[in-house]
Design a protein that fits this description.
154 residues, mainly alpha, 5 helices
Length: 154
């Protein structure tokens, strides 16, 4: 259940029908009557209207509505606590994120330098020099043999 739907449900519970308002008035008067002394109760009972039997169903509805309202309120309190906890954790997490980003950048630059070092070690001038002399040697021998064979064939 989303927060918005919980708020709507809470508002609908809080808005009472006229019968529910009567039930609440009866409940309040009963509460006052239990707090009074016995002499005051007799005087009050004669002036109070007698509730109809249909009002007992309304009392149950009000009880259920109050229970639902309490459940919604407890859910809202839990959500409020979650939000407060998230607000306290947010600056810490953002600071940690910026630290990790800077650390990632340093690791990337170190990795790039390492790759450059490895590539430069793979191909050195000595390797190229050796290849040059081998090519010159075998090309020279090949050219000399080709000239020799050509001279014998003619």
């Amino acid at each position: 259940m989303t927060l918005r739907s919980q708020q709507r449900k809470f508002k609908s519970i809080c808005s009472l029908s006229p019968n529910q308002g009567k039930v609440i008035a009866v409940l309040k008067s009963e509460h006052r009557a239990t707090d009074m002394e016995p002499n005051e109760q007799n005087a009050q009972e004669s002036s109070q209207p007698v509730s109809a039997p249909e009002d007992t169903g309304d009392v149950a509805d009000v009880g259920r509505s109050l229970q639902e309202a309490e459940e919604i309120l407890s859910a809202l309190k839990e959500r409020y606590e979650q939000i407060q906890l998230a607000k306290t954790q947010q600056p810490e997490l953002e600071a940690r994120l910026s630290e990790l980003k800077t650390e990632l950048e340093t690791v990337k630059t170190n990795l790039a330098k390492t790759w450059e070092d490895l590539e430069s070690q793979l191909v050195t001038w000595r390797d190229k020099e050796e290849l040059f002399w081998q090519f010159l040697r075998f090309a020279g021998i090949g050219f000399g043999l080709a000239m020799l064979i050509n001279a014998f064939v003619k």
